Amino acid sequence: MTIASDIMGSILHGALGAPGASGAALPAIEAGPWWVSLIPALPLLACILCGVSAAMRIKSKLPAWITVGCLGVSFALTAAMFQQLAGGRSVTIAWEWINVAWTDSGGHERSLIANFGFYVDSLTCLWMLFVTGLATLIALYASEYMSHDVGTGYCRFFAAFGLFVFSMACLVMGDNLILLYLGWEGVGLCSYLLIGYFYKKPSAVAAAKKAFIMNRIGDLGLALGIFLAFVQFGSVEYKVILEAAQPWLAAAQAGHFDEIPATVQLIPILLMIGAFGKSAQLPLYVWLPDAMEGPTPVSALIHAATMVTAGVYLIARTYPLFLVSEYALPIVAWVGALTALVAATIGMAQFDIKRIMAYSTVSQLGYMFAGLGVLTSTGAAFHVFTHAFFKASLFLSCGAVMHGFAGQLDLRKLSGVGFMKGWQFVAIAMLVGCLNLAGFPFTAGYFSKDMILAEAFVTPHMAPIGWILLLTAGLTAYYTFRVFFRVFVGPKYYEPGDEVHAHSDHGHGDHGHGEHGHDAHGHAGDHGHAAGEFHPHAPGWAINFVLLTLTVLSVGAAGLYFLGDHGGWVGKMVHASSANYPPIVDLAAHSGEAADAHAHADHGAHGSFLGMDPHKVMYYVSGIVGFVGIAIAFALHYVGRKTAATANADKLVPLLGPIPKLAQGKWFVDEVYDLLIVKPLHLISIVFAYIDKLLVDGLVNAFGWVPRGVGSGLRPLQSGNLHSYAVQMAGGVAVLLLIVFLASIAGL
Amino acid sequence: MSEKLALLVPEIIVFLTTCIVMVVGLSPNLAVRRSCGLLSASGLFIAAILAINGPAGDGLLPGLTPYIKAVIALIGVLLVMLVAGTVDREEDARVSRGGVFNALRTNRAEFYSFILFSLTGAMLCASASDLIWLFLALELTSLPTYVLVTMSTRGTRSQEAGVKYFFLGALGAAVFLYGFALIYGGTGSTKFVDIASIIAQQGINQITLAGMILAIIGVSFKIAAVPMHFYTADVYQGAASPVTAFLAFVPKTAGFVSLILLLALVGWDHGTDKVSVGHTLPSQLRLLLWVMAALTMTIGNVLAVVQSSPKRVLAYSSIAHSGYMLVGLIAGPGDYGAGFAHNGIAAVLFYLAAYGLMNVGAFAALAGLERRGRDGRPVEIDSFDDLRGLCAGRPLLGWTLVVCSLSLLGLPPLLGFFSKLPLFTSGIASGEIVLVIVMGINSAIAAFYYLRFAAVAMLEDPSDGPKPLAAPFPARAMSGLVALVLVISLSFFGDALMKASRNAAVVEGSGVRAVPASPSPGHKAGDRHDAASPAAAPAQRVGA
Amino acid sequence: MPSTLAAVELNSYLPIFIILLMAVTFAVANVAGSLLIGPQRKGGNKGIAYESGMNPVGTARKRFNVRFYLIAMVFLVFDVEIIFLYPWAATFPNIDPGSPDSLVWLGRILFFLFTTVVAYVYGFRKGVFRFD
């Protein structure tokens, strides 16, 4: 038994109780209602209609309203689906997609069935609720945000937006891994299209390509995982796969991983690679910060709230497979924790506020993975849920700033925005978002983060992860409030970004201007600003409405924690799904009724936080850590700050040696990748290009010339001369007869 | 007697239409004269409906008769639309300028009635149950086409083409008539059913075999297969584009139907050492068809590659398509219940329908355009330059050309792909791996020139200089549109046609009469018997 | 089978061979006869292609009245009609008038006559019968 198997075995032993206690059986699958199919269908319809609008050259906001309408109905249906669910699970088959049966060489009947079927359980509902809900809100936000691009670009944006929601719905709702893969690739494609939305900007194009290629690496793993799952289980449908893993659970509890086939254990590791790519984990995280080249609503929806959580969803959905693998969950935990730390350190040293948010997203995704790895799928799901709301609102606030200040995102060039006229809502939204992200007590982010932290200390052998995550929590609080203190409070000052011309281009016919007539003239206070002609425009009603709604939701998400035991409402949702078993460990710790079932759960395997019960003490510890982070940010970036560009923190920088420079340079990971992978590949590709050009093209050309040559050779026969034709025909008949005659003689 | 008459109702309808058109086409009233096309199309349409609902044939392939008649009549409707305005254009213009109508100078009546005669002949081929009948039907198909070619344009090239076509056609007819005579000599009967039962009971003797070989080679003139293909390019180029479309479909269909009927006389139950199951033609015929198929597709394709005139390219490609279809004939109907994919005959029948549509579409794009000649008269376009940027300039014609040429190439998911695929699969099922590889290579060569059509029309900018004009005949563009819609919709909803072609490919055994068109479940693969043993009863030889 | 077939059936080809032989003999005899019996003169006008026919110099595409063909073809229509009608008329009385066959026979010839009428109408409208 290796060390890893010991770890995994003891984790599961703690989790499942004594060997023999099997996980709760999944509820039976029912046939779902037909209208479930409409949830993905409506966004697709929106996409098609936007395409039609583009073809009809519609120059209004119609595409946005179509999209908002369709997504809104989709959200309503999702809510109805949630109402109908009542703890069971159902499958709705929209149409039979792939259904192939054959007999393999061993004489076994094999079949590949992958329907356009929608698997609905509480995990599906949880994800779809925030996917469709946020998509609706963000589409509304984008209707104003993208207004300077009304026309084809607008249609293109919303078409891709609708397609994204469709793909995400396929990913989340699909009842088999192939449909998931379709959605997975679909969201990747939409992400690519939307990152590269400003396709005339080279950096956006490069970022789009980077995101796409990085994801390909992960997708290769996912594809191999799906293949292997099919080979191993003979099916790609969840209902088969999830049941198939159950017999090995007992062996996994006992740590007898040598009894479990190696292929079974390999499957989750391959799937995990896919998850790392999509959810921007080490070492594949580098695409996500660059993805901020896309329009901000895209960053908020795709690259913060929904798509990047697909990896978490994948692991949660196939949790039973991960449980029976010796290495999978420990790897997930460590990768998640290290990603959280690395991304947080980079985030601390950035100046571009959107990029800081991007790194914080990577970091929080790391938290979620760590949560999965330390066996609190509830905590991970809860963090996904809360993070979706507050990160979306943070991004949208940043987007409002960017929109209003002509693309300015440098926190050294903006200050006191919250005190400017018309920016109050944005500031409030930002503050609430920051509090959530920093894990300020009694915010939603606090509860969800706390759950993961506590579990990291509870789960045996995982305490180092707990410490890393705790440190990260402090760093997070610091860099989050660094943004807030620099940009939203302090002396009023701004420099407009480089999109001034674009800004003045979009003209004052734009309703965002006319309606508000805001003249939040930036000559705020006594500070001048660079471009005299520039007037920042405060957000309009759509942006403010969406920000407010998100703020309320992100505050309200905290309330979910109290809607039930062991992880609250989200806990209930997760427990009723495939991500549940084994029943999560904190059943035993919390004095819940279900804990009785596991009263004999081995407390010896239960970890502790400095000798205390992590579940209780972590409320205080994480709260304190958050406070400390905020306080440091306050001291370094607010106290005594006179200008936008300088702060107390600048005095500290020299004391830390090269570390700030390295962090600012993102630890030069991109450069290392470039040197180790991109450059060598480029060299190889040059070599191959020459081989292709000389050898392959040469061969192909040769093949092309053969028919031409033969054709030219035969051409004289087509003389146009009737006599020759007649003779040739007669000759041909004779030759054919001769051939048949000779063949007959030869006995062929 | 009257049963046979019931079988001929569609042909009779077309013939009556012919009679009407012949008289109406000579009316002094221009409007009445112009109704010829509409009358012909309606007659064909009614014939098609009657054929679909009509009785199964009384020959060896009862299902074939209604299917192929319906296909011929329906595509005939499209062809009649396509030939609009081919003749009498100047005469009509002269009359509408106030000239006196001169019946001797108008060609409309003859033109449309010859088209209908030819279509009648092709339909009669499908009804054939006798060698003499088949010969007469084939000649009825061909003879009008010689005249059609000659009168299709006023240029001398058409006359030259018509003369060549006539003489070489006579040569071909002589060859297959000789073959028919030998078959009669070898078996003592001209009736298909009798011939088949004699061959099934006594095996195939040398004279019959020689007759079959000559008949196949002779009929291959109609399908423009090697070595009887030499006329194709000259004749196709000499005729007006709509008539070329007609030539590429009608005689070819008649030829393939005749070949199927002829091969059914022998049956596909002559097992050889090549294939373990007893589903193969006698080895000599198999070899003959193999050589013809390989040469036909290869020569057709390589010659198409070097052409510079679109019409000549299509002419040579039509040779190549015949080569593909010959593979299906070699494969035969396969095991009973083997499914569409293994039934070469069904594949051929499906391919004929598909090819007819794609062919109409491709030629409609050519026929829909014209140029002013030096003397101010409209002349046909005959270069790729005229097709440049067609999609931008004339989207309907352009996209029709693009879709149809890509479909002819066999690009998935278009109709051409789904019609070529069963030829491949049935070829593989019958063990002709090498031939299928040859076919694959040829499909790749075909990509060269079909993509040229698509690329020229879709990707290139219109060439400088005067652009080609639209031919002032909306019916031509309409036929292209109908073909386009059918090609696209059959690409996705072709199941019914596939099923129909499969039912049409049921080969009934000799002596078995009054069998429903669809195979009854009683026929099993085990019912087959070795045709070489005279003891076995002439029951179902092959179920489709 | 094939061998016996050849032996038996070659006999039936004997009349054809005789006719062929007669044709060849006739041709050869005539040519040989004129060579042997006819006078042999040379030179002058004798050397031209058609010594007593029309002058071969000039255009070969001489026009002559197209009605010649039309009349020939119209004649064919009626000629064929008679050729078909005669055997039919000779056979028809032998068929029992009550049998369904008789109706079919009658129908057939009426159909055939109908086609002839169509040909006639066609010819009429084409102006074949206008001799002006």
Describe the structure.
- The complex is a heterotrimer of chains A (748), B (544) and C (132).
- In chain A, 64% of the residues lie in helices and 5% in strands.
- Chain A is built from 30 helices and 5 strands.
- Chain A has helices at 3-16, 38-55, 62-85, 122-145, 152-173, 177-195, 202-233, 238-244, 249-253, 262-278, 287-290, 296-305, 310-317, 319-323, 328-348, 353-373, 377-404, 424-438, 444-458, 463-488, 500-505, 511-514, 541-560, 568-575, 586-589, 614-637, 649-652, 659-664, 669-714, 722-746; strands at residues 29-31, 89-103, 109-120, 414-415, 493-494.
- In chain A, the strands form 2 sheets. Chain A has a 3-stranded mixed β-sheet. In chain A, strands 4-5 form a two-stranded antiparallel ribbon.
- Residues 16-24, 501-531 and 583-605 of chain A have low confidence and may be disordered.
- Chain B has a 3-stranded antiparallel β-sheet with strand order 2-1-3.
- Chain B has a domain at 268-505.
- With 132 residues, chain C is mainly α.
- Chain C is built from 4 helices and no strands.
- The longest helix of chain C is centred in the last third of the chain and has 27 residues, at 100-126.
- Chain C is flat, with a radius of gyration of 26 Å.
- The A-B interface holds A 704, 707-708, 710-712, 714-715, 717-718, 720, 722, 724-726, 728-733, 735-737, 739-740, 743-744, 748 and B 163-164, 167-168, 171-172, 175, 213-214, 217, 221, 226-228, 230-231, 233-234, 283-284, 287-288, 291-292, 298-299, 301-306, 445, 448.
